[in-house]
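Progress against Task 2.4 (sequence-to-structure conversion) is shown through the following example record, which the project officer requested during the mid-term review.
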Amino acid sequence: MDQIIFHAWGLVITPWKLIGYSGTLLFTGRWFVQMYTTRKRRRVHMPVAFWWMSIVGSLMTLSYFVFGKNDSVGILQNAFPAFIASYNLWVEYRTRRQHADAPPTGD
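Structure tokens generated for the chain above:
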């Protein structure tokens, strides 16, 4: 996975770097998803896609730092957001399940 795929703009691109760049793009792109949803609903909202993009982006960059670069700073920097996003996603799905199981109100 360390073989050079190509050179672009003075950068050496390897498969691990592609994984790292993809993870970074996902992790950054989540804010555009959040901004779009907030504008659409006209109130601050964190969509489920935000949390999924956080998890996948963090795990992709984490794998780059673990296997591709072996950098402890990058490992610590990406492990924590993946954990927090996973927790928030779990809370979201648990809350949805509780609302779905609640008896209907008799108005």
